[in-house]
Each structure stands twice: as C-alpha cells, then as structure tokens.
Write a structure and sequence with these properties.
Length: 120
Amino acid sequence: MPPATRRAPSTNNTCHVQAARATMERAEGETKRAELVPRERSAAVLQMYRSLRIAVESNRNQILPRAQKAYELIVQKYGLMLASYPQVLSVQRALFRVQTDYITALEGLWMSWITLRGCC
C-alpha cells in the first residue's frame, strides 16, 4: 500500500478525536452557563427586592405621611378660603401619585419575594 493510504485513517481518527473534544468542551461550557443563569437571576431579583424594600419603607414612613398632611392642610386652608380649589386638586393629585407609587413598589416587593421563595 502507498504511504498516503496509511496516513488517512490516522488523520481521520485525529479529526474525530478533535471533534469529540470540541463537542465535549462546548457541552461543559453550556453546563457551566446553565448553572450560572439561575444564580445571576437570583442576584438580580435579590437586588430588586432590596431596592423595593427601601422604597416601600421610605414611602410608608416618610413620603405618604407628608403627602397626607399636605392634603389635610390645603383642605383646611380651602375651608378658611385661604386656598383655591385648583390648589386643592393639585395637592390631591400629588397625594394620589404618591399612593400609586407606594402600591406599585409594594407589588414589586411582593413579586420579587415570591420569586426568591420559589413559589408560583
């Protein structure tokens, strides 16, 4: 047999081995990526939970009481004819906006908590 025919099977086997190694490396890389994705998601959800918790507490303890007090004061002034009705509506709109923001943050907080707990 000529030497070229002898080398062909050896080269062919080398190609198969290299292809098998490449496939194995891709599979290992995919496995590592699949392991990291849930961790990255959990870290992002945990960060969102912490941020929303701060927002909810800030709204509940500071922003909402101040907005409510401002509304009560403007209604009192309106009753004494010291404020106009458009001023009352403006403060009331601001109060509603703060309440809506609080509810939205509270909803996000609960959703992230549920996600972290693995429920639903």
